[in-house]
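Data availability excerpt. The first of two example chains:
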Amino acid sequence: MVLTRLSRRALIGAGASTILAGLALRGVQAEQSLLPVTSQCGDGDEPTPRQTEGPYFTPNSPERTNLLEDGMPGERLALAGFVLDHRCRPVAGALLDLWHCDSTGEYDNQGYRLRGHQFSDAQGRFVFETIVPGLYPGRTRHYHIKVQAPGRSILTTQLYFPGEPGNDDDRIFNAALVLDIPLGRGPNLARYDFVLDLG
């Protein structure tokens, strides 16, 4: 399976090769075929929807792009994309703080396992190397993330997986936040571009 559909607000085709180049530099072997050619940004996209933080956010996560640990179970995944303003211009130095449960649905509330933050580069790019989260009771499969442009308010949201049986029953699921991910074929690469309302 390859990526076939992305949220309309997650499209900026000119950046696909630069994301893949960034992945290669970080040791993630990705092929061009994993990211399709997409339409250009700038078609009146709305800002990325906000969602609840949930009960398990831990402040002061370590700054890192790789959340993997030796022997960690779970399917590997690289989550890559851009941080953009509402005119689709890249936002450099944006804080991205990601956290999620492990492959068994457990959150680490004592330390920083599967938690970390980074800053978007000069082109607004980011890449997290992590795993596909397990199922947390009562929720569909998801990531939590906070995104903040320098000196601006924080966007707190969640990202979801396609084809999950729990999507239809999840009380806060939002189809605008769904990732298309080539599960079951390595390396896995997902893309989401965050659009911030910076006025």
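And the second chain:
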Amino acid sequence: MPVRQAKALAHLRAVDPVLGAWIARAGPYGLRVARAGTHFDHVVRSIVYQQLSGAAAATIHGRVLARFGGAAPTPRQLLRMPEDQLRAVGLSGRKVEYLKDLSAAAARASHPIHRLHELPDEEVIAVLTAIRGIGEWTAQMVLMFRLGRPDVLPTLDLGIQKGVQQLYGLRTLPTPEQVARRGARWAPYRTVASWYLWRRVDTSDLW
């Protein structure tokens, strides 16, 4: 186990025995960071996946790539692609608009999207949410699954809210504010805690 991961798990067990017990039961931490491609590629994929099941989103994303010969398009290639051809692969009109806006921003070599890995978490969120169609949740997913940032707690995520509800035996779904307050003790490893909360919802056979 990597040193930082071991330190994170030890910290979570120490500050939150309930979460610690679940960690022991759920097994090894398994979040995988997407290293391939560019930051732009990853954000394109994130927009395609918004509000869709994994299987449906994967199909549409595959069709998008097929429009560009099977490779991830550059910002300028996406800008040049006619909107009707993008809609023909299953993208909604709104998502086509979002991808065009993203591409217009990323087509500028100086745009911060090309150096997200150099920016602190708050700046990454600010850069991404300034682009139409990218909200806080999507920006947080980029922080976690693209940049591998260790201290992200997506309080707006329904899976996170359900995980907190189930783990702590709450009668009602917690609000984002309640999740944030409960999760404050998990810092600076809230990404790790989040992964285990998702795991709680996805693996009912373990509890």
